[in-house]
């Protein structure tokens, strides 16, 4: 940590202590648990401890990328909003929301999907944080499997009932550093919490 | 609806149809269910059908206020971000995030709490949407019970482990139009979903 400022508010630390008491048995290592705990704090839903999946290289790759100031691309504005403060307090990575990059969707695509593909052209090795749009995650996975390019990390946490599980299965098939939320759950707050936890890990071990 | 544009994307309608199939028995009326369904869509968590509480006047007061372009005050930027698009598509209410109104917290208070109290001085009859900060909800409830002023609606959906349940209990004791999420659950996405559902109800019955 380059200065004395604490990244986590005292109330957040109190909240973490309660989660520590209540979590019970789990199979997460300490870095994985730091991420799960922040997600649980953000949702009050302990089920996330069982839903998170980490590729073996995910957290190390994420930390290295964050420190190298690799650009961060979110699918929607709400995820971007949820990480802006912590990015500004730490490594100041360039940060954009894919949906805000395009005013009109390409034919047959959603606006988020169109945006994420344009971002991948510009930042193929970026950190991708998907908290909302399964169409964006599916399109990103398709494009990656057609190319030799690999993002530094993909956080796959779209939420909902249509194409969400399929999009996460597509991500799981790729050999790319990734953190996923299995099943239907996820969301902007969850995706932002995962990235914020990674920023704290990267900063506190700087 | 003043023009032919659909407020809900076709994928959202598909998602709603799946929720309709899976929800099972509940005791919500049709407007309450419209709100619960949007929250379930946003979280993939059916528990919210049982956690939502509506004061008898809440939805009618909300609809009337939204149509009258009453200002909307959120606690944090992420809630504001989550409702910006739907507000712009409908009644264009003035929209601010309390935390963004102050750069330094008053002594002994959080920044969000300081911000919400300043907003209440300016907009005592506003629509308050709290998705994150229990300190802000507690401070707002205290100030309301000391005054004769009543907001048009309070959405009480802070999330977490510290002061969250207490803040919702304080809201429940007030005779103010309100929609609450009981217990620890809630969050920015949940608060935004409740307000967005209200905007759709107000617009489609315009």
UniProtKB/TrEMBL annotation, chains A, B:
InterPro entries: Cbl_synth_CobH/CbiC, CobH/CbiC_sf. The keyword Isomerase applies. The keyword Isomerase applies. Keywords: Cobalamin biosynthesis, Isomerase. Pathway: Cofactor biosynthesis; adenosylcobalamin biosynthesis. Transmembrane segments: none annotated. GO terms for biological process: cobalamin biosynthetic process. Residues 11-200 form the Cobalamin biosynthesis precorrin-8X methylmutase CobH/CbiC domain. GO terms for molecular function: precorrin-8X methylmutase activity. It holds the Pfam family CbiC. Belongs to the CobH/CbiC family. This is Cobalt-precorrin-8X methylmutase.
